[in-house]
Design a protein that fits this description.
The complex is a heterodimer. Chain A contains nine helices and 16 strands. By secondary structure, chain A is of the alpha/beta class. Chain A has two domains: 191 residues, Rossmann fold (3-Layer(aba) Sandwich); 100 residues, Rossmann fold. Chain A is elongated. Chain B has a five-stranded parallel beta sheet with strand order 2-1-3-4-5, with helices on both faces. The chains are: A alpha/beta, B alpha/beta. At the A-B interface, helix 5 of A face helix 2, helix 3 and helix 4 of B.
Amino acid sequence: MVTALKNIMDNDRKKIYLMICNQSTNLKQQDWLEQMPELNILADVKPVLIFNQPSADITPKIWLKLAKEIQQRFNQTDGFVILHSVDNLLYTSCALSFLLQNLTKPIVFTGVQSNKPSVKKTEIRANLINSYQAVNHQIAGVSVMFGNRLIKANQALKSNTEGSLNVFATPINVPSLLGRIDFSIRTFSKTGSAKEKTKFYTSLAEKVEVITVGPLINLKKIANQIEGCEGIAVNAEAYQNLPTDLIELLGKSGLPIVIWSKNISNPEFLPKNILLINSMTWPSALTKFLWVLTQTKNNKGIKELMNKNIAGEIIHQN
Amino acid sequence: MRLYFTADNQAEDRLQKTFLRIIDILNDSGVLVMSNLAAPNLAGFSTQDLERIEQTGEAMLNQMDALIIEGTKPLSESGYLIAIALAYHKPILYLCQKGRLINKNLVQLQKDKNTSHLLNLEYYTEKTLEITLAKFLQKIETSDGKESPTIKFTLRINSRIERYLQYKTQNTKLSKADFLRELIEGLIDNDQNYQKTTEKK
């Protein structure tokens, strides 16, 4: 690793693509980068505009576009830094971890949380510098870099610490932390390549209905909405038991259904087309389901793939 | 004043001696030095400080007043540290022994109007080392003519002092903190022994 880093400031600087998925500035990308000349001492950075709207507007179509743009440049670079606001960041990064599997290069998501202009400018600079340094350390896979933490994207959770620059956190007792910054970046993950060849996927299921369980749930409306769907993803995060009528409706639909919950642990009572998942985060479960539905339509196959560790997303076994 | 000093800890003995001399000079000038050469690296921070920094996600370098790099032997982390220091607007002294070349990317960066006021690239000899460091410390203290007070610490006082501070600052535009700062600045200006020590360097 020391050898790999030895000449960072020399001519063999790492080549990094900065993929911009964020309405960050009115300036042209190149002008914006020129205001931060210190970024150029770390790497040879090439900006690519992917999405020029607030990241709250990002949809699966943009995930596919981002994956495609990365695939096209994959062999020409040492890694990618994705500039993305906090909104939807975990969904985009998780989706990418399933669209681009067995990654041999780093893809680091970063951005800015603060709305105060003075803090924002410094925060974005520091986050970008730390992200470039994470690429320099060649930590392969999709990760998120905010504050002083580099975390596996598909295991990351939104942090609840108000005012902290650490926007994301790791699950309790799970070694999701890839690196920590003090005066340098200390990595906790093996660097280098995956053993298998990188796989690029170009599609995700498009017709998936997402239902959030709650007291105002309208079964009639759901019955209409799920017609013609490829599958249903249910977020029942805090529930210990599921509404009986909802389970009956979902069971009768015959569609592949994933129910994500932290607290429900009696899957044996569920109809065969319903799979209970609590082994990964919600953004991971949802985006993985979208990918799995492009691989198989068979309930058994879906169950097997959803329970298989595809991109390091499994935090603990069901 | 807190500084982060970094140099190649694998460098030959001759350079290692110079690195230790730099730390000694800085320590003698009353600077708290943190360094990759010293163990533990994070000395100078209490456990609570470190926990707070970890929780808030702040950069360690943002807790420093400046960064000094001895770059005679190129360092793997120096590009990263310089970039972070510039992001947080921290003054940087990049030292290189006379006869060696400073990396051209750094020379280019020093020409940039956004970074030139913070990045100081200096060649030195054993003879000029002390004066180079002293000038840099002076520059930190008087950057832009006046340094804004940013270092915080807790000062516990008794009711007698509190009463006196109240008496001295009431009906003035000075806060108690301003009054104490001015008092200490006056003490520094009139302390001839201290002046001699810093001028010598």
